[in-house]
Each structure stands twice: as structure tokens, then as C-alpha cells.
Amino acid sequence: MLVAAAVCPCPPLLVPEVASGAAPELDTARAACADALGVLAAARPDRLMIVGPDERGGLYAQGVPGSFRGFGVDLAVRLGPATDAGADGPELPYSLAVAAWLLERCGWAEFPVEGVGVQDTLTPERCAALGRVIGAEDGRTALLVMGDGSACRTVKAPGYLDERAAPFDAEAARALATADPAALTALDAGLARELKASGRAPWQVLAGAADGADLGGTLLYDDAPYGVGYLVASWS
Fold first, then answer.
1. What's the half-sphere exposure (Cβ side, CA atoms, 13 Å) at 171?
2. 108: Cα separation from own chain's centroid
3. In this structure, are residues 112 and 56 in contact, taking their beta carbons and an 8 Å threshold?
4. What is the DSSP annotation of 65-98?
5. Engineering a disulfide at 5: which of 35, 143, 175, 220 sits with its beta carbon 3.0 to 4.6 angstroms away?
6. CA-CA distance, 67 to 145, in Å (whole number)?
7. Residue 57's domain spans which residues?
8. Rounded to whole angstroms, what are the CA distances from 134 to 52, 119, 128, 210, 232?
9. What is the CATH number of the domain that holds 210?
């Protein structure tokens, strides 16, 4: 049963060591992420499931390591406490590495943690179906959903300026603010891919998990630094 969810962006720039001199520019976003994680902790879940974009896709057990060496920073993280199950296999994708950093920063250590990497080729229907499986698990489940909005909000954005980007992000923000699973599921996967919106698939997993859970939503952050839409929300 899904009892709470937090939605956070996943740029490695959230990590101050990666952002370096630009770190203060995302202080407000970091604070909003901490507030969203506080809502998860207050829900007293039995387990935390992290969902984020991932080219490979698949499950990541508690204890799987990750790092930011690919961004020129010798900083290691781990998905919750170390376990034998997390000793082998691939490292965390960057989205789950950012999530692991957020959890360590907020002192989350008492809940079992698992990760799910979601490919952006998954259809909305398959994403929602995956979410329903997660939401149907026994016990109290909390979700930490990682993903960015469009990367086409300005001419200096990674995807350059696209006039469709702001309306896309606005609809996503409205759906997250109102905890509207149907509206999240309705986000166009093809358009999201064109706008480089990595959050589309993870958000639609959330939509499936929250179906029938009767959660309320709060939008904690909505901005587009560097021309990329970053959204933070909490559902409880």
C-alpha cells in the first residue's frame, strides 16, 4: 500500500561537490527535496522504493554503490546500508545515485530501501502497470520518484528552446500539485522524449502506484534553472 511519495529532480548538480562554484544556485531546490523527504519519514513506511530514469532499467538492491566519478568528482554513495545483496552487479544509475545522496544528506538509515530503474522507452501503460505492482505490495510503501521536466525551456538549455516545453512542464506541475494519477498517465511519452523530460516514465510509475490510494499533493518547487524544468512535490 502506498502511503506517501516524494518527487525530486535528479540532476547531478544537486550534489554541491558536482556543482562546485554554482552550488548555491540550487540551494532552494535542495531544501525543497529535504522537505519532501521529511514527509516520507513522517509517514512511517515499512520500506522505501526509489524510482528513477535508467538506460538499462532493472532492480537495484539495498546496498548497491554509486558514484559521481563520471562527473569528475570522487564521491561515492550507497543505496541505504550495505548488504550482501548489494555487493555485486552494476553501479547505480545517476538518478538513483542522486537519490542515495539525498537520503544520506537527510540521515535516512532506518528503512529498507530498493531501487527501480525505468527506461524512457516504456509506454505510459507499462509504467502504470509497474506502479500498480509496487503499490499492491504488503505493508506501508513510500516512493521517492526521481526525474526532471523538459530540458528545452531556454536557448541555453541542453535541448535548446522549444515552445512546447513550458506547457508540458506546467501540466506535469499541475498533476503533481494535485496528486492526479490520471493526468500524469496522460503525459505524452513521445513529446516527453523530444523535450528530454526524464521524469515522464518515473512519474507514470507513481501514477500507477497511487491509483486508489487517495493521496493529496503539494508542489514544493517549480523552476527551470539552466533551462531544465525541476519539480519537487510530496504526496501523502
1. 17
2. 16
3. no
4. EEE-GGGT---EEESSS--GGGSSSPPPPHHHHH
5. 143
6. 19
7. 2-235
8. 14, 17, 10, 9, 21
9. 3.40.830.10
Whole-angstrom CA distances from 59 to 4, 80, 116, 138 are: 21, 14, 5, 18
Q: Are 53 and 146 in contact (CB under 8 A)?
A: yes
Residue-wise DSSP of 104-140: HHTT--SS-EEEEEE-TTS-HHHHHHHHHHHHTSSS-
> Could you count the other beta carbons within 10 Å of the beta carbon of residue 192?
23
Distances (CA, A) of 12 to 62, 70, 101: 21, 10, 10
The neighbour count for residue 160, using CB atoms within 10 Å, is 13
Which residue is associated with the grid cell 512519474? 203
- The pLDDT, as a whole number, for residue 87 is 58
CB atoms within 10 A of CB 108: 17
Question: In this structure, how many other beta carbons lie within 10 angstroms of the beta carbon of residue 66?
Answer: 24
Q: What is the pLDDT of residues 106-149, one digit of tens each?
A: 877 667 899 999 999 999 999 999 999 999 998 999 999 999 99
Nearest to 116 by CA among 131, 136, 137, 98: 131
Distance separating alpha carbons of residues 233 and 218, to the nearest angstrom: 6
> How many domains does the structure of the chain reveal?
1
Over residues 96-103, the mean pLDDT reads 96
Q: Which residue has the higher pLDDT, 108 or 210?
A: 210
Strands across the sheet containing 47-53: 58-60, 113-118, 47-53, 141-146, 2-8, 230-235, 217-223
Q: What's the mean pLDDT in 75-84?
A: 85
**Model confidence, pTM:** 0.95
